[in-house]
Fold each of these.
Amino acid sequence: MLKNDPNTETSSEYDAILKEKAEAKKVLASKNATASEKIGAKLIEEFDPAAEVYRLQEKTDEELQKMGMSDARIQIIRNFKGTDAELQALSANCSVSGNPKYTKNASGQWAKITFAFSWDKRTNLANERCVGCSSDNRIFA
């Protein structure tokens, strides 16, 4: 549904995590950030996607298969060394498509945007922390 849509943006889960970590560093360095923003930034900064993979190594192959893991992904988990390439290969991709509809009438102009989300595989790196991604390639935990 989303793959051939010209309005579709796709973002890697791992790339989104790296972007969030970079933003978190800026927030923590900022003198204008609120306490709440700094707490959120600290949580993002402390998140270690490699630790999630090491946690997955504790599961049996059967458990990983029940989680929707392919044999290829299970092999990466079993042989995981912590490289960016491995984390990229294990991460899911989120595709987001928006279909805007604009209307102008006597009371003004408004827009309605319908978003569709699609994951190419089960998310693993952000695990329960990832509840969605936005059109600006940010994940929210």
Amino acid sequence: MHSRLCINLIALVVTIVVLLILAGITLTYVMGDNSIFSHASEAKLKTEIAKAREKIEVTFSHAKLLKHTDQKYNQDDYLDDLMEKEITNIKISDEIAIVDGYAFEIDRSEPKIGQYIGKEESLVFPEISGTVTLADDKKTATIHITAKETKNGISKIEIICDGHVIGEYTYDNNKEQIAEEYEVKQNGSYIIKVYAKLTARKTVEVDGIVMSIKYMPNGNEEYKKEHQVKISANETDDKVKSIKYQWLNTTLEPAEDTFIITCENEETITKNGVTGTYYLWTLLETEKGNKRIERSEGFKFDNEGPTISITSTPVSETSFKLIAMASDTKSGIAKYEFYVSDKLVDTQKITENSTTYIWSGTEMEEEKACSVKVIDKAGNSACVSSNARTKLHSWKIYGTTVTTKIEETVYDVNDYFLNRCEVFDKKPSAYLYGSGVGFKEESSQYVMYESGRVPGATITRKVGSLWFLSLFFYLR
């Protein structure tokens, strides 16, 4: 009896152990990570994600057709409106679409759907706000931007208009609230795009800016003889009625009644014939009756030649030096050209304010007609002339030829180069048939001069040789 009871007890224990093992296996199969319930939940999730994806794909197929058939289509607001119209329970945040709580990346340019990135509750988007204030003169507006993403931080903010990035701010994953201000000069829709781990965007509308003129180019610091400027008005809901313009060398705003010359929108205006800094002023009138006077930045013009002078000094019996000095406060000196007897003898492409040229001959020469031409960087030129001679030269006085050799000459720049004077060792008295030839005592020497041509400078002249042809003197 006792033995049978022990057997039954052992059998009961074994049965309980087996049942516990079977129960554990069953619970693991039903409730574990690889359980029936886990597989069922995963299958359900995949089915729901696929259904959400399918909704977006159907709408994007429709959008691809509209892209080629509807002129109003764009990949921003139009596409957002289409998705919100055709898909229920959708949220759109920049390049992410959330349908039924499931988030997908989207490519707006095609458009097409990208990879699944998770459930809505697991995503952290940047927070954005954008407001607009209009300037008092209605010429500009300011977009006030605030953005924050405390978990991952913000790396960049872009301002986008008509599909182009027109403004950008960068950060080193800033987790604090960011505040920026961006000034715009045209009405329209502006997108504020914020980059963190995920991106977000917000669209703000700017309205109320009075139509303005755009100048292309807007000023030029390079001195030129002529400048061309294209003017265009940023038409929006208002249209151009008329554009008038004038060029002025002042930044003081002119009165409306001083604008006379008219032009068309998108016309290129040419200005030349002036020197200095000039501004293109425009008077814009719109069909709604708005008027606006504004100006370009300065354009630098140069239509005046350099200021120049030329002097000469004898160098030897057969050569002389020409000294040219020039200044040009606008475009600057570009080139010197020297002429002797109307022939170009030397060209110097230099920017200095002075230079020299030495002319050499092979025999005694009469006075040479010389000139220098200076060209500036804008292409303007000026020319001055002067006579030059060597130390051995011939000249005429009242039809009589005199040949002299000059050993030393001292004079100032106001002299006539003493080209009508001669020095004698003894004091003569002479007249030449009433020709006006006379004598002037100068230190221990005497100078013969042509009446009315004696300069007031100090004269020191030594004559090595002196010949007179058909010149008559009467010596006392």
Amino acid sequence: MKSLLGTILCAILMCIHTSCSESPSNLYIKMNDGNVISLRQDKEVYYETENEFQCGLSFGFNMNYSFLANNNVNLVPDSTISIMGYDDRYLGLWEKASFGNWIENYGLKPNKSYYIASCVYVIYLPLAPDGYYLFPIADSQDSIGFVPSLGYKGSIVKTNKASGISIARSGSRYVGYDENGDLIAQEIPNLNNNITWKFLIKRNGWD
């Protein structure tokens, strides 16, 4: 029940902060490091709590997958695998935002404007053996990100049979720049090279 309520809350917050009341605005801003970002809207968003901030994570932007795997794993039926690191990382859906007092826990200042984005990590895996599937597993102590709208940590797997691979994704929130355009580069949660993926290779179902 708690997980379901978390999922519903995240869905509502995503609707409030994202596509329910806005359209693409194509507001381009050049930062002091030369990077140009495109804001999804021209208004500033206020995230009073960390949960609201995490629920704003979205995978709903274009990602040009490289399909280049940096791992060499063997998917053995009825086993588990653990992989550290990632193959691709994408930033998208930039917006201007400010935060409540909770942001001090990450060394940033409340009620100050920042430019933030959704950060998506991707790992490429071979297809599971015939009749088997990749089931992501995670707990609160794992170094893994979040899945939008699900309300909990973990990853999500999509099969691309045309390319002969499985694509796993997990995400975090990214505070990229301060209001003056200076680089911050703070992830919440901070994953980077510490991100660890765990999967169970099992037939469809848990019996």
